[in-house]
Amino acid sequence: MSEATSTAVPVQPVKPPRRLYHDLAFQVLAGVALGVVVGNFAPSIGHHLQFLGDIFVHLIQMVVGLIIFCTVTHGIAGVRDLGKVGRIAVRSLVYFEVITTAALVIGLVVVNVLRPGAGMHIDPSSLHAATGTAPAKSEGFDDFLVSLVPTSAVQAFAEGDILQVLVFSVLFACGLASLGDRAQPVLDIVGSVQQTLFWIIRKVMRIAPLAAFGAIAFTVSKYGLGTLTSLGKLIGVFYLIVVLFFVLVLWPVSRYAGVSLFKLLRYFRAELFLVLGTSSSESVFPQLTSKLKRLGVDEPVVGLVLPTAYSFNHDGTCLYFATVSVFLAQATGSDLGWKAQVGLLLVLLLTSKGGAGVSGSAIAVLALTLSATHKIPVDSIALVLGIHSILSAAFVFTNVAGNCVATLVVGKWENAIDRGRLHAELDAGFQTAA
């Protein structure tokens, strides 16, 4: 009896099933739905709820620069193989340029075929002073290159310029890697700081549903559901373009990377629902970093590809720029033939790079793009201000999904993915730790 008792295997307690309302994606989606209701039926209340979304985005922006620095530094310096770092960077940039070009082409073709702005006959002079947009300054390629290098590393972090933070982080990591074993104490500190920042993010994410509620309630209360009707054709065409991009580009690219696009979107569903409410891809950068590592992608690939993608792989934003630029040309009767549109594509390949992913930044870049064409009135941007939030929800969603796919593709090229772990995680779906 005693022998049987001593060899008995203890029974593991069965974990209770996870409640649906505990899932962050469900909470964010519920917040968005409640925000639509409050904004529509109680606009006087919804109009004062924008601060909830602003606080959340500010909390994320407070640490995102440091997280990029720690992620890039730990990823590159931990490898100590600068040749591999250079190879990853070149492959990433080539991939970004090909995919964003495909996005621009899809946007230009569909908006020309369906012509959502035809027949509007808008007089641009009637829109003057309605945009509230500062005159755009045309920037050449040499100016763009100069802007990559910060005059002060502290200023780059303070202003949240992702490109400048990335340049400084890469240089710092390469210098650290050159020290060999002497760099290990610094790497340990960077790793500890990174884990501390992720702890902050986990706590901040608890208010994500509240932030989504406030942001959507404000948008609906200010612009109303009627905006869906007045410019409904543009919204419908743009969402069709987004769907086509997923089907024609991201789906086959995901198949090439050896993953199911549906399972990948399901795995990142909480982050994707969140950006629908906040329209800010910055708000999910830390979570994407953590989840991609959990999928089995090597830290150096995640640490270099994902931050770079945030500046150079704006798939959804390229769809937005191409669609809205041609729509405004159609609405204002501007002469924009195919030759001019090829020139527009080349301009967009430059101006679409380097955005910080912050809500509203696309409007400023769009103004810069229209100014560079010398054909489309910059003041015509006023036409889309009322529906910008509706459009930005779709293009930021696309940006986030595209950056996840990009990281997996480069990981495949580098043979830097644990395939068993990847498929096990995707099949099970993301499960938060107890």
TrEMBL record:
Membrane topology: Multi-pass membrane protein
Record flagged with keyword tRNA-binding: no
Pfam families assigned to the protein according to its UniProt record, in alphabetical order: SDF (PF00375)
Keyword set, alphabetical order: Membrane, Transmembrane, Transmembrane helix, Transport
Predominant location: membrane
Entry-linked InterPro entries: Na-dicarboxylate_symporter (IPR001991), Na:dicarbo_symporter_sf (IPR036458)
Localization: Membrane
Transmembrane segments: 24-43, 55-72, 93-114, 162-179, 207-225, 231-253, 344-369, 381-411
Record-linked Gene3D superfamilies: Sodium:dicarboxylate symporter
UniProt cross-references to PANTHER family, sorted A to Z: AEROBIC C4-DICARBOXYLATE TRANSPORT PROTEIN, PROTON/GLUTAMATE-ASPARTATE SYMPORTER
UniProt-recorded name of the protein: Cation:dicarboxylate symporter family transporter
Source organism of this protein record: Streptomyces hokutonensis
